[in-house]
């Protein structure tokens, strides 16, 4: 493991020359200014956007009530910023480069095309009764209609809620219900690697018996025919033909909602994180410009799915609001083999690549030759997101992928933060592998102990909080503001609590150590242990379940479920039961949540008051046999022997 200071990677000279911020001193000066005079700083950033009416005040903040408003009184439309102004200035510039699932197949969508498609789809939505403020669920694979859908909603002031196309029918249904959407946009199917996701069939199952949804718009990704329900289901291409490609942009208030994105929390129910128009867009735009150090002819390749916040902010809104060409990648990094990403980079001449440590780990495993046989000369910057990046993986990214030429930006943020909060500025900040380095402008990280006492100075570890509002922060959990207050503000008021643990080293650099709550970070995706447990206990055979994370070579964190089975099912062979329980979670939540290990036990470790000792389970699942806590607190000390026999990871 690298120590804090043994490897400082200074910004590359060639990169620094054209960078927006060219030295650490310049960053520090701007950072100080952004804290001392936030209104001036954010007012200046807001001027990068086109407003129908400029903001009257920059921010109104009330931490006690967790009420935040930015750019108050400002009127704008996201699509004027992401589409119209670029379609006017550079109509033939590529807005989207679509890399289809089949290797070598690409499609270019210019800003002119984008304007046409977005306006037409906006008219389709209107014709299906969608009005300003209405929610629209988008359940699409990585096809251009996905981006059009987001922007079409924004055009008319509807609120999009994208559900990742890997989620199950149950998960989709839950989100449709919570959001109250009347319209769902999906596709007949979604090819992905060697498989295809049956998005329409899953949608049908999710909407079964739900009168709430009156229109399902179906994009035709392949020639495959799918059952269409009379009166409810409509082919999107047929609908689009009915409308012209002109639709006036709705005047939105800066604080009008732009989207809801569901994410996992520490309870069984996903939360609908709500972002608003002005603050979110200013933040996505500003962070994208500085952290990816945008240059006019950049081709930005973000490998994340638009179903996650990374895809929202750094595949769609950040790039398009700056007029940057963005790559939409339909396939996976390892299909048909581990050279796929580099092939796309070379074919599309991608300049900035933004991916996740979990993807890098799966590529490292396949060997360097898949990388080195490609050119990658177009690349000038590499970015990482989603989970802590192991220093070895950082070095591989830097040395092998970037040939030591490209800066690596490790970016820390969350669905709730809207954009990146801690990351290096590539022309200014010396990097340390494994550290997200220093806060972005206007961001004030604070570390506190369990009692909420602020940990001053450097060389300290604690709970990572944020001391002041930033424009991109989520405004509420849709329909559950008290849960918003409870989750993020109640514990360390007036600070925002991130749920992450963190160390600030002797140089003031931040090192995220992982979640400190009951949320797992599996392959860079958030998963609540309670969600997986509820999926398991919904199985007829399960009496009780406790889910914990354990270190996993590829996924970062793996999912381990300890389960007790009801007496009637004790005769089922273990292997069959484990298979059935894994399938259960897959079915209820989606493949990403499938437990890596299911351990069938006759009892869970509990205190006499009935509390499950998760810490003990976590340690055992992680292979620890010592310091498991005081076994005498166990109601039934005998369970420990069984756990130690069955629960340790296989060697
Ligand atoms: O634990 C942190 C981890 O991912 C969590 C946020 O997950 P999600 O809302 O799904 O958003 C992921 C993409 C922004 C955080 O609380 N995380 C994210 N980025 C990093 C990270 N941990 C360490 N380093 C990062 N760069």
UniProtKB/TrEMBL annotation:
Residue ranges of domain Acetyl-coenzyme A synthetase N-terminal in the record: 27-82
A Gene Ontology molecular function term of the record: acetate-CoA ligase activity
Gene3D superfamilies with a match to the protein in the record: 3.30.300.30, N-terminal domain of ligase-like (3.40.50.12780)
Entry-linked InterPro entries: Ac_CoA_lig, ACAS_N, AMP-bd_C, AMP-bd_C_sf, AMP-binding_CS, AMP-dep_synth/lig_dom, ANL_N_sf
One Pfam short name: AMP-binding_C
GO biological process: acetyl-CoA biosynthetic process from acetate
The keyword Methyltransferase is annotated on this UniProt entry: no
Top-level EC class as recorded in UniProt: ligase
Span of domain AMP-binding enzyme C-terminal: 531-611
Residue span, AMP-dependent synthetase/ligase domain: 84-468
Entry-linked NCBIfam families: Ac_CoA_lig_AcsA, PRK00174.1
Full protein name: Acetate--CoA ligase
Higher taxonomy: Bacteria, Pseudomonadati, Myxococcota, Myxococcia, Myxococcales
């Amino acid at each position: 493991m690298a120590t804090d200071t043994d490897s400082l990677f200074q910004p590359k000279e060639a990169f620094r020359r054209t960078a927006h911020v060219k030295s650490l001193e310049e960053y520090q000066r701007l950072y100080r200014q952004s804290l001392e005079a936030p209104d001036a700083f954010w007012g200046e950033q807001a001027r990068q956007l086109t407003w129908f009416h400029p903001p009257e005040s920059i921010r109104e903040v009330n931490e006690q009530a967790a009420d935040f408003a930015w750019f108050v009184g400002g009127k704008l439309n996201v699509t004027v910023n992401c589409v119209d102004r670029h379609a006017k200035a550079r109509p033939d510039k590529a807005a989207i480069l679509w890399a289809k699932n089949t290797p070598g197949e690409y499609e270019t969508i210019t800003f002119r095309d984008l304007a046409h498609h977005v306006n037409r789809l906006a008219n389709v939505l209107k014709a299906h009764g969608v009005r300003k403020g209405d929610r629209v669920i988008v359940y699409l694979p990585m096809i251009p209609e996905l981006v059009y859908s987001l922007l079409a909603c924004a055009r008319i002031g509807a609120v999009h809620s994208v559900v990742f196309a890997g989620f199950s029918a149950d998960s989709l249904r839950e989100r449709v219900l919570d959001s109250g959407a009347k319209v769902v946009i999906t596709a007949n199917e979604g090819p992905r690697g060697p498989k295809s996701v049956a998005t329409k069939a899953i949608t049908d199952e999710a909407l079964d018996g739900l009168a709430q949804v009156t229109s399902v718009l179906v994009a035709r990704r392949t020639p495959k025919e799918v059952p269409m329900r009379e009166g409810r289901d409509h082919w999107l291409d047929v609908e689009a033909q009915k409308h012209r490609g002109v639709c006036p942009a709705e005047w939105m208030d800066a604080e009008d909602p732009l989207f809801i994105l569901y994410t996992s929390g520490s309870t069984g129910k996903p939360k609908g994180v709500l972002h608003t128009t002005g603050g979110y867009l200013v933040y996505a735009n500003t962070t994208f410009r500085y952290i990816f150090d945008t240059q006019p002819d950049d081709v930005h390749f973000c490998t994340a799915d638009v179903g996650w916040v990374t895809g929202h902010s750094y595949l769609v809104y950040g790039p398009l609001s700056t007029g940057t060409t963005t790559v939409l990648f339909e396939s996976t990094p390892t299909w048909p083999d581990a050279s796929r990403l580099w092939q796309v980079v070379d074919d599309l001449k991608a300049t900035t690549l933004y991916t996740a440590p979990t993807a890098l780990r799966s590529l490292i495993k396949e060997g360097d030759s898949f990388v080195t046989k490609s050119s990658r000369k177009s690349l000038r910057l590499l970015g990482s997101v989603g989970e802590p990046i192991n220093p070895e993986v950082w070095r591989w990214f830097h040395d092998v992928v970037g040939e030591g030429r490209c800066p690596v930006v490790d970016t820390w943020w969350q669905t709730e933060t809207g954009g990146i909060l801690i990351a290096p500025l590539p022309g200014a900040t010396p990097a340390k592998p494994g550290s997200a380095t220093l806060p972005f402008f206007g961001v004030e990280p604070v570390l506190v102990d369990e009692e909420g006492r602020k940990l001053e100075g450097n060389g300290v570890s604690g709970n990572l909080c944020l001391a002041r509002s930033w424009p991109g922060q989520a405004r509420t959990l849709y329909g559950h503001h008290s849960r918003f207050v409870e989750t993020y503000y109640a514990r360390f008021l007036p600070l925002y609590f991130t749920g992450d643990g963190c160390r600030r080293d002797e140089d003031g650099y931040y090192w995220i150590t992982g979640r400190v709550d009951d949320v797992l970070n599996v392959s860079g995706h958030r998963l609540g242990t309670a969600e997986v447990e509820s999926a398991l206990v919904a199985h007829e055979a399960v009496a009780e379940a406790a889910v914990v994370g354990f270190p996993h070579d590829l996924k970062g964190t793996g999912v381990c479920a300890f389960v007790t089975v009801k007496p009637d099912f004790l005769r089922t062979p273990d292997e069959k039961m484990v298979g059935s329980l894994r399938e259960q979670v897959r079915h209820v939540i989606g493949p990403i949540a499938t437990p890596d290990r299911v351990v069938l036990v006759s009892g869970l470790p509990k205190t006499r008051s009935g509390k499950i000792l998760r810490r003990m389970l976590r340690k055992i699942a992680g292979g620890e046999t010592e310091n498991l806590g005081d076994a005498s607190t166990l109601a039934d000390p005998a369970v420990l022997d069984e756990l130690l026999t069955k629960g340790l990871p296989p060697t």
